[in-house]
């Protein structure tokens, strides 16, 4: 396991997964994937996500299932726009490893890809390369179905994946 992955695992702090809610915060520095095992935060494009850039993701899910996800970054390309979404799988050396977007109501219909059915954390880096975003929903993640945050190049109509951060998203058990 790389030093970056160890640091992310050590810094991840989660509580609960039961009826009392769930809270977690984790952070890491981006590194290129030099092997089949990707670091916790992997850059696929060092121009937009430079090696050493920092990312933090936090989640708070209330007992009723309402969820807030927060994102903060530093060290990004100043002025660049990023489309950021929660994806289904952990990051890998291949940008496609993170799978598709996590959807509250899974669907093959392209209309289902919207900020009400998915977690969107889009931002524009400021002149210092910092950015942040918050998404709030009245629903929570299903157990083991959300695994990462993927940064996409917002300028590219293909939404090319430029970075990925494996995140220990949690869930709240149904009450009743």
TrEMBL record:
<comment type="similarity">
    <text>Belongs to the Cu-Zn superoxide dismutase family.</text>
</comment>
<protein>
    <submittedName>
        <fullName>Superoxide dismutase family protein</fullName>
    </submittedName>
</protein>
<dbReference type="InterPro" id="IPR036423">
    <property type="entry name" value="SOD-like_Cu/Zn_dom_sf"/>
</dbReference>
């Amino acid at each position: 396991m790389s030093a970056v992955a160890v640091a992310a695992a050590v810094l991840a702090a989660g509580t609960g997964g039961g009826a009392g809610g769930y809270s977690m915060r984790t952070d890491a520095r981006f590194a290129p994937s030099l092997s089949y095992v990707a670091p916790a935060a992997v850059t696929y494009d060092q121009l937009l996500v430079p090696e050493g850039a920092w990312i933090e993701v936090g989640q708070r899910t209330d007992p009723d299932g309402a969820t807030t996800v927060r994102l903060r970054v530093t060290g990004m390309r100043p002025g660049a726009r990023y489309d950021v979404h929660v994806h289904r799988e952990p990051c890998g050396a291949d940008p496609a490893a993170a799978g598709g977007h996590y959807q509250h109501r899974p669907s093959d219909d392209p209309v289902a890809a919207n900020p009400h059915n998915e977690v969107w954390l889009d931002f524009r880096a400021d002149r210092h390369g910092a950015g942040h975003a918050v998404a709030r929903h009245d629903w929570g993640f299903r157990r083991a179905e959300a695994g990462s945050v993927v940064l996409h190049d917002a300028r590219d109509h293909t939404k090319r994946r430029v970075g990925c951060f494996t995140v220990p998203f949690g869930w709240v058990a149904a009450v009743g």
